[in-house]
Amino acid sequence: MFIRYLLIFLLIYFGVRIFLRYVVPLLLSVFMRRAQKNFQQQFESQKQQQQADQYKEGEVFISKKPDSKKANDSGDGEYVDFEETKD
Asked: CB–CB of 61/55 below 8 Å?
């Protein structure tokens, strides 16, 4: 009777080990591929939709660079060089 329970326990133990070792990674890789494919399709559809909405046929867009002034309007004051003094 004890040997029977021991054999059943060992079969279940090794069965779970084999399942976790080989089957679970396969299932996870299939799940990840499906999720990746779904995200990629969503990204592509959003990208195509943005490109279609951005430029309509016959419209002209002129873009210019922002002004490259070196404005120091941070309000921190002006820069003063540091000089070491001997005490």
From this structure: yes
Helix (H, G, I), strand (E, B) or coil at 12: helix
73 pLDDT more than 70: no
- Report the C-alpha gap between 33 and 22 in whole angstroms: 17
Tens digits of per-residue pLDDT, 13-41? 999 999 999 999 999 999 999 999 999 99
CB 2 within 8 A of CB 9: no
**For 24-33, b where at least 16 C-beta lie within 10 A, e where not — what string?**
eeeeeeeeee
Domain extents for the chain? 12-53
Average pLDDT over residues 28-57: 86
pLDDT at 2 exceeding the cut of 70: yes
